[in-house]
Amino acid sequence: MSGAAKENAAIEAAALRSDRFRFEREADWKRLDAIVARMEKGQLRRLSDEDVQALPVLYRTVASSLSVAREISLDAATLAYLEALVQRAWFVVYGPRSSLGSWLRAFIGGGWSASVRAMWLDVLIALAVMVAGVAAGWMLVAGDPDWYGSLVPGGMADTRVPGASREVLMQSLDGTDGSTGLAAFAAYLFSNNAQVSILAFALGFAFGVPTLMLLVQNTAGLGAMLWLFNGQGLLLEFSAWLSVHGTTELLAILLAGASGLHIARSMAFPGQLGALEAAGVAGRRSAQVMSGVVLMLVVAAMLEGFARQLVPDPAGRLTIGLIMLALWLAYILAVGRTSHGADK
């Protein structure tokens, strides 16, 4: 047999093999194609129960067909068809069920607030720990001012140290000369606050003990600074200075700590679920809350880097802080009350 004849025979054998391969499996391909096409058009309700149940089986069958087709080097048209079909089916079976826009609307429209309400006990625990941390920091420096250097980082203290005069402390609260480079300052503050919040959340997996310690450590520094300014009769001015961004920032840290505690509590007391399953449910809820925490930290950084510096009046600063707190609380307590499942 000549070389040309052998080549023709090989082509005919390959074509026959391709036709036989397609004939044996094409019914599954067409059925999967029809199901995927309807789902892509939003016609899920028009599918029968049998088609819905068969979808994952058909997907795996066609994916297996694609793997075999690649191994035996079937014709390019069959390979292209199977690759496209498997890709479309993957998005239907495993892909996201909603677009980014619809997810964001559901998140802002009540998903986030409902998740926060669902972990109300952990929020109360974290709040109690943070209040205790403030009280502990105040009492420690009141008994021994040397504690101040241990509780308040040097970068935050600058001129705000024990022994500073009223004038020096008052000047440290003046934002009229700090309007340059505020964008970089806001970015730095966001990075710092985000690190604290992420740690408070992540350490929850160690049964919550490190989270509690971190919350106490950070709020003890706040208590020390409150004691310092109170000693010079500037407690109201300092509180106003802090409230511009502090109501948002401290609430974000509170929610991050509560998220970590929520996971720890679900692992320690899984209830009727297994420990891993309970941790998975709590982890998904906490992750949604942490998405909101990131948004709050962005807002806090903008307020700290801009609004606080540009509004020198204590009354104005306090007004901004209280308004922000009222808005956050109103959102958490009121929005998404009709959401299903998240509040449970």
Shape: elongated
Helix-strand topology string = HHHHHHHHHHHHH
Please outline the major beta sheet.
Answer: none
| Mean pLDDT rating | 81
The low-confidence runs, each spanning 5 or more residues with pLDDT under 50, are 177-182
Structural class computed from helices and strand pairing: mainly alpha
* DSSP strand tally: 0
Number of helices: 13
Distance between the termini: 77 Å
Query: In the residues, how many domains can be counted?
Result: 2
Overall helicity: over 70%
Q: Write down the Rg.
A: 30 Å
Q: How much strand content do the residues show?
A: under 5%
Molecular structure report:
This protein has helices spanning about 5-40, 50-70, 75-95, 100-120, 120-145, 145-150, 155, 165-170, 180-200, 210-230, 235-270, 275-310, 315-335. It is mostly helical and about 350 residues long. It folds into 2 domains: about 5-95, no CATH class; about 100-335, no CATH class. The longest helix has about 40 residues, at about 5-40. It is elongated and about 90 Å long. Mean pLDDT is about 80; it is low at about 175-180.
